[in-house]
Amino acid sequence: DFGPKVNFKKKKVRFAGFSGLPASSRNLVVRMQRDPSLVDFRPVEQCNLDYHPERGSAIDPHLDDSWLWGERLVTVNMLSDTVLTMSLRQHGLLGDGSEEEEEEVHVAVRLPRRCLVVLFGEARHRWKHAIHRTDVQQRRVCSTYRELSEEFLPGGEQAETGAQLLLTALSFTGTPV
Question: Which Gene3D superfamilies does the record associate with it (predicted)?
């Protein structure tokens, strides 16, 4: 991984060995920024994942932190097709106005190899995302890039830390942490 060390419970960020995103990512980030929806995307973390079906690789349904990480999560799915499962717990009203039982809605999103997916808005903040074991049919390699939240941008409480993180990340001189 390439990014700062973070204690999300204590809301602490440490640079501890973080020297930037890797040089090999520079062209990909520039290419991402050519898309109108990512023109201002400035990642400060690159998380590389390597899933193997024989190891039962998976990632449980979760929401990414929103204290440090910003509005968009960008993932490049590189080696094989897979399925990203989005889930949302919701409850509704019955015809008589009483509440019905809570149910979980699941949406399977096909991710072809070499695709880019951006989670933002409700998909980022309300819908959990997962990769189920049964959906890892072949080795899957992906990189997820995260940007800073408003708190770490100019005008935010931690703007100074954010500026340092951006300067370091976008130097593209990183070695794995």
Answer: Alpha-ketoglutarate-dependent dioxygenase AlkB-like
Out of 3.90.550.10, 3.40.50.2300, 2.60.120.1520, 2.40.30.170, which CATH number does the structure's domain 5-169 have?
A: 2.60.120.1520
- The answer to whether 2 touches 13, Cβ cutoff 8 Å, is no
Beta strands in 19-174, from DSSP E residues, in sequence order: 43-51, 59-62, 69-77, 82-90, 103-111, 115-119, 128-131, 140-148
Neighbours of 50 (CB within 10 A): 11
Q: Which residues contact 95 (CB under 8 A, 6 or more apart)?
A: none
d(CA 162, CA 68): 9
Residue 139 CA to residue 136 CA, distance in Å, equals: 7
**pTM for this entry:** 0.91
Element (H, E) at 6: strand 5-7
